[in-house]
């Protein structure tokens, strides 16, 4: 197993808390400091292609339309926050150094298309992890809402109007438990697995909307906070 020491030097805006959660604030939210709805995105299967325990830059490929969706959110001043479970770190399959390399490649790919994310949160904990990441049902690991709540503590985010896009039912559950407005389950990555969409849709309720889409770009076009005229940027 790979060891998982904290790197001596972390990228800009990044910290690994005492709880083991990666929190990185990359770009300030544009405009006024008032809280606003955010777009939360899972990483693997949504922003980048699902590769079992992705940890090599050579295996990192952006999902079709992902950069376009992020750029469109950026243009509207909607905060974009990546929230990703990283059990591969918890299990010792790879370490934070490999995670950083992949993330930098993803951020560079977005930048090449004119896009950016405002923050990234990553949880390495898993019930089958190695110490210190062997915490069962850690509050930061989706389907728990810890990463979304942490983002709202650090950034001017209105969770009640926020949405998530994810390929697992756990992504949708995390958004509901965080008090978000809704989630969109995409049929890529793990989203194609039997029963995953049905389970995701089971979280729909009177105050939480669950929609279905094929890809992140399809999902983007269905999220009210990104499509209503009120969200249009002013000149």
Question: What can you tell me about this protein's structure?
Answer:
This protein is an alpha/beta fold and 235 residues long. The protein has one domain: Rossmann fold, CATH 3.40.50.1000. 27% of the residues lie in helices and 15% in strands. It is built from 8 helices and 8 strands; from the N terminus they run βββαβααβαβαβαβαα. It has helices at residues 66-75, 87-90, 96-112, 146-154, 169-177, 196-201, 216-220, 224-227; strands at residues 14-16, 22-25, 39-41, 80-85, 119-123, 163-166, 182-186, 209-213. An 8-stranded mixed beta sheet has the order 1-2-5-4-3-6-7-8. β7 (182-186), α6 (196-201) and β8 form a beta-alpha-beta unit. The protein is globular, with a radius of gyration of 16 Å. Residues 230-235 have low confidence and may be disordered.
Q: Into which percent range does the helicity of residues fall?
A: 25-40%
User: Which architecture would the CATH scheme give at its second level?
Assistant: 3-Layer(aba) Sandwich
CATH topology: Rossmann fold
Q: CATH superfamily, called what?
A: HAD superfamily/HAD-like
Spatial gap, N to C terminus: 53 Å
Number of strands: 8
Q: From the helix content, strand content and strand pairing, which structural class follows?
A: alpha/beta
Mean pLDDT: 92
Overall body shape:
globular
């Amino acid at each position: 197993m790979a060891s998982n020491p904290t790197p001596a030097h972390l990228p800009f805006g990044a910290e690994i808390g005492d709880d083991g959660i990666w929190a990185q604030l990359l770009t300030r939210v544009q405009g006024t400091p008032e809280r606003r709805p955010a777009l939360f995105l899972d990483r693997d299967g949504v922003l980048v292609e699902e590769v079992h325990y992705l940890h090599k830059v050579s295996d990192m490929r952006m999902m079709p339309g992902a950069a376009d969706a992020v750029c469109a959110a950026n243009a509207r001043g909607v905060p974009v926050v990546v929230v990703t479970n990283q059990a591969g770190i918890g299990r010792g399959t790879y370490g934070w150094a490999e995670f950083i390399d992949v993330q930098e490649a993803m951020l560079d790919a977005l930048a090449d298309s004119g896009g950016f994310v405002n923050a990234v949160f990553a949880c390495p904990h898993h019930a089958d992890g190695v110490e210190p990441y062997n915490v069962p049902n850690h509050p930061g690991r989706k389907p728990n809402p810890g990463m979304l709540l942490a983002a709202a503590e650090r950034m001017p985010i209105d969770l009640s109007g926020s949405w998530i896009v994810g390929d697992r039912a756990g992504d949708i559950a995390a958004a509901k438990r965080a008090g978000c407005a809704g989630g969109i389950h995409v049929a890529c990555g793990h989203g194609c697995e039997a029963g995953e969409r049905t389970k995701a849709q089971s979280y729909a309720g009177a105050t939480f909307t669950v929609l279905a889409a094929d890809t992140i770009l399809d999902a983007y076009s269905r999220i009210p906070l990104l499509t209503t005229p009120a969200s249009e940027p002013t000149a």
